[in-house]
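Hey team,

Filing this mostly as a record. A colleague (T.K.) asked me to run one chain through the structure pipeline before their review meeting, and I want the input and output archived in the tracker in case anyone asks later how it was produced. No errors, nothing strange. Just documentation.

Input sequence:
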Amino acid sequence: MTSTTGRPNRVALAIAYAAGTALAGYGVWLMLTTRTSRKLFDVFLWLAGALVVHDGIIAPLAVVVGLVVARFVPAMVRAPVQAGLFASGAVTVAAASLVLGLGRKPDNPSLLPLPYGRNLLLVLALIWATVAVLAGVKRIFRRTDEFADREESVPPTRRERTSEEA
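Output structure:
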């Protein structure tokens, strides 16, 4: 939401903030008017648990992984690896309840009918195959650039100097 001058477009930001505030307020109003007090307690308990899990486990783990990647992964392929880690984490978190079978009932096999563990592994394999391709492409382009730089830095041969002087 920046203008052509690179400064933030204040009108667009104000509209986005107003829309976000209105939607959040509507969500809170719906939650407070359509839930029983027990359900509200469950919602707040879930939100508190999510906050503790994020701040106590996910964020520190992300920092440690980021430090390890920054230390051991070469700069040339660091961006694809970081993107792969981010995508893997997001997909794993989204699929965790399905893979663990949370909500599965023995008397209703149609609730979670698919092999979610296998499917998660397939998606993760696809993500990392993409990372490998991107890293390979970056390496090829780097070598091409190095070769072009080397050719430009080679002094002209005797024949090239003679033809340039003529």
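Quick notes for T.K.: Helices lie at 10-34, 37-72, 75-100, 116-153, 158-165. The mean pLDDT is 86.
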